[in-house]
Structure formats: structure tokens, C-alpha cells
Amino acid sequence: MPASRPGRLPAPAALRLPPGPYLTLCCILAMQLFTVPAIATAETPPAAAIASAHPLATAAGIEILNAGGNAFDAAVAVSAALAVVEPGSSGLGGGGFWLLHRDSDGHQIMIDGRERAPQAATPALFIGPDGTVLRERLMDGPLAAAIPGVPAALDHLARHYGRLPLSRSLAPAIRLARDGFAADDKLTAMIRFRLDALRRSPAAAALFLVNDGPPAPGHIIRQHDLADTLQQLAQHGRDGFYRGPVARRLLDGVRAAGGIWQDSDLQHYQVVERAPLHGVYRGIKITAAPPPSSGGIGLLTMLNILSRYDLDRLPEATRIHLISEAMRRAYRDRAQYLGDPDFVAMPVERLIDADHAAAVAASIHLDRATRSTELPEVAPTTAGDGPDTSHFSILDRDGNRVAATLSINYPFGAAFVAPGTGVVLNDELDDFVIQPGTRIGYGLGGGAANLIQGGKRPLSSMTPTFVESDHQLAILGTPGGSRIISMVVLATLQLAAGQQAAAVVAAGRYHHQFLPDVISHEPGAIAPGVAATLQGLGHQLEATSRPYGNMQLILWDRRQRRVEAASDPRGIGAATVIPAIAATKP
Ligand code: GLY
Fold it and tell me: Going by CA atoms, what residue is nearest to atom 1 of ligand 1?
């Protein structure tokens, strides 16, 4: 397996953009990006907090904190509970990134539990006789399924960071799977959306359908096989999933239905501990996800560009214009350069340094939108909102933190359950490029760096993040497919402007991802007068059919000795501060 590490490479040709009219009007701050030493915080928070996308998952985390667990044990409990109660959004068949801060020594790390392609995966498997990509093979059924990362990550978290045994942290999820939980509106809507694909997997249909159709909200979903699989993980750690009876059932189920998994794919799956990326925006320290997430690079590139402008003093239309221009440029970089760091060399440091920001900002005009076609060309893209995927944030009373974003790639992933396992397999192979230049998952463009290859991790947009000033710490993230990164950028700018947790998660959202050349926005997020000004600058605007995102945010204000937690009002999640203050879900 080729293994090369990211490092400082010569500036790629495409980064040397032609000089444009240089904006000095608002250029007041230069962003500095450097490796920020990990430091233990001098004080501990006055309360613990958990914000997750489902009240039962938040409750599972609280149970584990109350049982003496730390934030990392609670992260195991919340991840596993989400696998049970949000099976269309994350789960044991999926992957994720857990960004950790251990306060006793300031150790910060990202647990990369991203799925890997099975060794037998090749581009040819997904290209038809006429040379076109067979999209359905990347979406539905076991051929689309990547090797799961979540079970190994939970074992790793418990063994290296937790205080409690896996058997204790997994207990709430096992109980939920056996006793059942009431299906909510969001889940039944997702089942309806994936009905045809779920019907084709008898084990999935048996779990999630009633009379061959979606269940009514309130229907109790019990998952005995999943409870048994979690029990195996609880008893035997990672071997309980990647070897032994569960592995056998996974392999038999996948292969009987036309998939390509082999014993060695499961046995060799490993999580990777990766050093987070760091940057500073207006004195605020950003700690974010490194590749194979594109999130940290995208976030830091955009903030780096935006730190050149005094955004707070600008009219709203100008602010949205500049933020959209920064998004346009960072998403262009994503498509061109990024992939699995264990397989491809990427100019990571170059992309997040101030010189690169200066180079790309030079082509931004204050008085007109750039056409994406004016920038160096990369593959075409279209937007996707991603109702799947899940994020949670945790702060414990010792100051340990977790920001974790977990993914089932499309609602219910591959919509395939291996018989006898209860595990929804994930069509994460759809996040790879099959042919450079063609559209991939969420319509994001991509090049050779993210080309499918056995053992490789697909590029992700998941962006678990810490945002920390001298007096305030935020732990945040969201699902949302290609829009994840732009949502975290908007939230970071709102935090920098002093907004409170509830306001940040509720704020209207907009997004630009290079191609299509359009600012997509939530209905009502851009006022008509502001929209008219943006159109006058040459932007095309498009309202999304519905709101998007499901941000989970914890904010610890050290000066005021206050912890707030907020769960996105677009979802059904629960944010709880323990012990003093009640839930702050807006
Ligand atoms: N599956 C969505 C992502 O990882 O970005």
C-alpha cells in the first residue's frame, strides 16, 4: 500500500492565480496558521453538557457520565445509541471522526474511524459497458458498502481514553435495541424515501418496514440482532465485530447478495489517530478535522481568506458575497487536491497557510461575483444537503471534550442489512471518485486523489470542530453532506461575533461549492433586498426546498462560568447541561 504523508509541497500551478484588483478596503487582519501547542486548560467547566441529534442518545451519554464515565465513555454511549435510534443516519456499519481533547495533559487527537474500500474495489466494477458510472451500484446493496469503522473506533475510544469498560458504555444502546424505541417523524420520512431499496433487503425490511411500507410515527422498532452484535462488541472488543460469528454473518450476507468483502478486509480494518489541524481566526483558535476529512482544510482556508476583511463592519450583502467567494475557492481546492492521506500526498500546509489565502483572495472583487469558470477548472459539482449523518458534542466536568461526526452516507446507507447482524451497511464507496471529472456523492467534484482503490478511505466533508478564544470554548459540528463545511464556517463566524449557542444553531444558512455556480440558501435565510444586491453583483441565488443541517453545539463561557448547549431546531435532538441548567433546545 503506498503510504505518503502530507507535507509542504511546492505551490501547485493551479494555486498561482492571476492577480486581480486587490482589495485593500477591508483588509485589516492577516490570518496566522500554525501548529498550536496542546495545552491543558487551567480551570474546569462548571457543568458537563451533551448535545446530540436524538434525545435517547443524549440520555445514554448522560447515564454514562452519571455512572462515572468521562466524555470519551459518553461518546461511546452516544455513538452506539445513535446507531440504534437513528439507523438511517449513522451506525455500526458506518464510519466517523471523533475529535478529542483530554484536559489533564491537553492531548488533542482525531480518531479516524472512516470506512475503507474493500481490497477488491476497483473503478471498473462501477463503470458500465458504455463507459458511464453505474451510480446505483454505488448507492444500494452490498457492492456499495465500505468496511465499517465505527465498531473499531468505539473499542479504541474505550480502551485508550475511557474510564469504563466497553460493556458498561454500550449498555444503554443494547437496552434500546432490545426494548425498542418509538420511530419519530424524521425516521419514518427517511424510511419512506428509501422504501424501494429497503424492500430489496429482506433483513432491512424486517427491521424497518411494517406491511412492506414505512411504519407510522410512534411504532416501536426493536432490533434484537443489533443488540446481539453490540453485545459481542461489548464482550470481545473489536474482535467481537471484525472476527468471529458477527464477521461470519456479515461476510456471508454481503457475498450472498453480490458484494466483494473478504475476511481480510474486516480483520485488517484499523482506526488511525491523526493530528488535528489548527488555525487562528482573529485570535480564536480553531481545531479541526484533517484528511481524509476535507472539513478542516476547507474551514481554515475559508477563515484564512475571510480574516482579510472586517466582516462585522460590512453591509450584509457584501458580507454574504465575500463569504460565498471564500466558499467558492475552498470547495474548488477540495475537488482538486484532497483524498486519503495514507494514499496521496496533499499540499495540506500550503492550502491552509496565509500565502495561499492571499493568492486566492487576490481574485475576489468587492463589486462583482467571480464566475467559477474564471478559476482554474476542476470537475463539475452539484449541491446535496445530506439528511443522513449525525453529529454530537460532549463536555465533561473535567474539561474533556468530544466533537464527533458519524456517517451513514445516504439515508440508510446501502439500505442493506446482513442477515443476523442488524447492521445497516453503508454506501460510503459513493464518496469516492470513480472517474476523475465525474460527479460523486453529494455532487461534489473530485480528481485522482480521491479515486477508488482497495483499502483507501473516501474523502469526507465531516467537520467536527473546536473553536476557542481566551474566554470561550465551542464544540460543534453538523451533518449535511457537502454543506457541512460551509455550515461550520458560518457558525464559526457567528461565534466570533459573540452569538450565543441557541442563536448559532438556529441561524439561516447559505452555501457555495464552486460548481454549480450558485449560492444555495435556506428559504428565508437571505432577505429579499439583500438577495437583490447579491444578484446585482452577478450571483445566482437558489432557495433549497427545505431547511438543512442539524448542528449540535456546546459553548463554555469561562468568564461568565456558564455552559450552554443547543441542538438544532431543524432536528429532534436534545441538548442538556448537567447538572444545573435545563436543556436549552431552542
Ligand atoms: N458521507 C458524507 C461525508 O463523509 O462527507
Answer: 409
